[in-house]
Design goal:
Length: 292
């Protein structure tokens, strides 16, 4: 028995790295898994791993950045497993460059894959689940988004990625607020792990230890949180951003309104200098931007 028995979950970008780890972990806990990746051969290889140990999975390579592709992915889940209970939006790309050197193409492709990709499939699923509720059927749906520490606090040389990942964190809050009435939860994950996107800038820091000790940055360390979020056990948890690395789990606190100075009238621009300095002094120190 697994905590995701009788549930079917779509995972995007699941042909390697974190997505593969999530797919294997969900399969091991009883979920039927749609392994989506633009590389069909990679998706099929992950499916073979799941099936080899008695799990259920199908491969899919439809485009997550189009509504047509999203509809095809959802249909693949329904065809294979009869229904779909969740999505793990994991697919992503990077095009790192300093802000003043970045071109619009590099900006657009990252925003498209991350932010639009998250929208298309979640929007398609939310409409499907809403219709089920209108028909009097029970829904216990899960949206698990993937943000990043970079999206929560910034990262030098990654303004496109940061903007997309910050947008995903904010999108999660709105999804949670709007979709709760339909029995849908929305949470986000900010993982730190060794993947194809991190092996360049963090290769030395994240390399696998040669002495056989705990592999802190193994992507498999992140997946238990994903499995739990996709399961019925998490039905009362929504609108949260989980930071996960190694054996560590935390919930990011996000933006909060800070101390207030109220003049009761319009401020004179010059008098704001002392006011702003006082507010900054009273505010919690921000976490450092990655790379500073």
């Amino acid at each position: 028995m697994g905590i995701c028995d009788n549930r079917s979950i779509i995972i995007t970008g699941a042909g390697g790295g974190l997505g593969r780890a999530h797919a294997l972990a969900l399969g091991a806990e009883g979920a039927g898994v749609v392994v989506n990746d633009i590389r069909l051969d990679a998706a099929e290889a992950v499916v073979a791993e799941i099936v080899a140990v008695g799990g259920r999975a199908v491969a899919n390579h439809d485009d997550i950045t189009t509504m047509e592709g999203a509809a095809a992915i959802v249909q693949a889940a329904k065809d294979a497993f009869g229904d779909v209970h969740g999505v793990v939006n994991n697919a992503g790309v990077v095009r790192d460059r300093m802000f003043t050197s970045m071109g619009v193409e590099e900006w657009d492709v990252v925003i498209r894959v991350h932010l639009r990709g998250h929208f298309c499939i979640a929007n398609t699923l939310a409409k499907y689940w809403r219709q089920k509720v209108k028909e009097g059927r029970k829904v216990d749906g899960r949206i698990v988004n993937t943000t990043s520490g970079a999206g929560l606090q910034g990262s030098i040389g990654q303004s496109n990625y940061v903007a997309a990942k910050g947008g995903i964190a904010a999108l999660t809050l709105v999804q949670a607020a709007e979709l709760a009435r339909y029995g849908i939860t929305a949470n986000a994950l900010a993982p730190a792990a060794r993947t194809g996107m991190t092996e360049g800038p963090f290769q030395e820091m994240m390399k696998k230890p040669a002495d056989g000790s705990f592999d802190y940055y193994a992507p498999e360390n992140v997946s238990p949180v994903v499995v739990w979020l996709c399961s019925p056990l998490s039905a009362d948890v929504t609108g949260r951003v989980f930071e996960v690395e190694g054996g560590r789990v935390s919930i990011a606190t996000g933006w909060h309104t800070g101390k207030i100075r109220d003049k009761g009238a319009r401020w004179n621009p010059a008098e704001l200098t002392d006011v702003v300095r006082q507010l900054i002094a009273e505010a919690p120190a921000a976490q450092k931007v990655y790379g500073t």
